[in-house]
Amino acid sequence: MLNEEIVIKTNKLTKTFGDFTAVNAISFEVKSGEIFGFLGANGAGKTTAMRILCGLLSPTSGEAMVAGYDVYKENELIKKHIGYMSQKFSLYENLTVRENIEFFGGIYGLSRKELKEKGNDLIGRLGMEKEANKLVGSLPLGWKQKISFSTAILHQPKIVFLDEPTGGVDPITRRQFWDMIYEATDAGITIFVTTHYMDEAEYCNRVSIMVDGSISALDTPHQLKEQFETDSMEGVFLKLARQAKRGE
Amino acid sequence: MKLFFSFIRKEFWHVLRDTRSLVILLGMPVMMMLLFGFALSNEVKNSNIGILDLSHDESTQLLTNRFDQSRYFSVTKNLTHESQIEEAFRKNELRMVVIFPPKFRESLLHTNQAQIRLVGDATDPNTSNIMINYASAILRDYQNEIFGEQKFPYQINVESSMLYNPKLSSSFNFVPGVMTLILMLLGAMMTSVSIVKEKEKGTMEILLVSPMRPLMVVITKAIPYLLLCFIDVLLILVLAYTVLDMPLRGNILLLLAESILFIFTTLSLGLLISNLVDKQQTAMFISLVGLMMPALIFSGFMFPLENMPLPMQIISNLIPTKWYYSIVSSIMVKGLGIKFIWKQTLILVAMTVFYLAVAMKKFKIRLE
Ligand SMILES: Nc1ncnc2c1ncn2[C@@H]1O[C@H](COP(=O)(O)OP(=O)(O)OP(=O)(O)O)[C@@H](O)[C@H]1O
Ligand SMILES: [Mg+2]
């Protein structure tokens, strides 16, 4: 599934807020079709970096290309080719499942017919036929997250950015969520995901670990474990996290 | 365009499924109409009055001075003909006119009877009513002086009338006020709260990360409220017409057009607020304290502006509601046309453009 096409490339990408450097000269590449884990403790700068890549924030310095477009000049073009699931839960609670799907699909320019088809298809795959016309606000968090993810990839973007998509969700639902992620990669979508769960890091093709705004390690989970002489990602993370100065 | 409608539909769903907004939207105008329906008493101080003296004798001279010296009135104009009254009211120069008939003193002394007519500007019937009462009191005092306390047959008959508003119902006065307040509340508060809510919930981020232009996002959020505000204008007019028997004097199309202009003003204020704050509560607080309070105090319908200290009167010119209130009451109660309100209209247009420009500038800064 992996090929060598590079869909995200950053070079010394930096973001400062006043005199605080939230993201400090990070450089990495993400290949097409990859599941790229973006790990880091609270406040490491993951969300900030992700928002830059999505065109929501402009960087202070450094370079970044997403889906072949420059984040400074072509952020409007980037937006057409990505999906984004923010750290905050972000569907309209006052709308039904179907209305949410149709609305968010609609803002990516899908036609009414496409929306109907894809909406039905999606509801079928999620097994939510009974809930399709219920307000999203009344559903459990895990379901909402699944709908959120599905709407984020409804328009078949090149890359989807997931900011802690499984935060606060039970292990079984998390497992199902990751099945959905694998399905998406089968459809050729590149995944850029942050998480706090170390078991999820194992599911990624490659993982970067951010400490205080910088990337301290970047490799496959297997290589990282060897490098840090431990048998779990948990161990890798703990060894790196010890260097962190930004407290919790 | 299709997208545009799906946005608007989404926004309507939000409003219609949220009982709180529905109550504000429909309950508020109805409640206010009924609430303010109870006459509000207004105080009167140094109101400008005119004298139409057709007699020019000792008594009328004396009475004119009495009026001028009273703390309620100041005589600012001497009229020569009855036809000037309406004009003076239209221009808001005078609030009341005292008419002395020819041979006032003569008839008072010889026939023991004299007529005086008081004509009030009924645009503001509460105030006019109070003014006529004060004026009658001054005339009674004078009568007692010349004839002593004795219950003599000598009498000054006071005949009062109102221009524009013969039925003297206080509802006529507060309807424009309710319209002003409702539009301010809905336009500014509901728009700003609904935008800030999207920021707070994180949905705004999803909208901004989509290919939709940020400007489009904001415009589509504002349009449903434009429609809803307009519906409320119609609702209030229908209530005024059916429940309160208020005749709609002016040109209804002009009134609606001016209302749309004012809705734009309030929407741009709402946009401005939404760009300044990040919490729904803050947006609500700013709308209530920063916009509603001044709207209540400075529009002139609860507290007559001419009773305010000069600095307050000057401040009132900066409050958009004052101008809209003046426009609506000119059209609805006085039946005036654009010729008499173009100045207020221009001021509102200028204010709207200013708010929009600032809001857009802030919006750009937010998105870097
Ligand atoms: N707009 C901003 N202005 C100032 N500081 C900010 C801003 N956004 C983020 N920060 C700061 O930058 C740092 C990194 O924040 P960020 O949200 O990127 O961390 P994170 O790795 O996503 O953390 P978490 O795991 O808690 O989501 C934090 O210390 C945060 O306070
Ligand atoms: Mg984060």
From TrEMBL, chain A:
Residues of the ABC transporter domain: 8-237
Molecular-function GO term, any one: ATP hydrolysis activity
Entry keyword annotation includes Nucleotide-binding: yes
Keywords recorded for this protein, A-Z: ATP-binding, Nucleotide-binding
One Pfam family, short name: ABC_tran
Keyword Cytoplasm: no
UniProt cross-references to PANTHER family, sorted A to Z: ABC TRANSPORTER G FAMILY MEMBER 20 ISOFORM X1, ATP-BINDING CASSETTE, SUB-FAMILY H, MEMBER 1
Protein name listed in UniProt: ABC transporter domain-containing protein
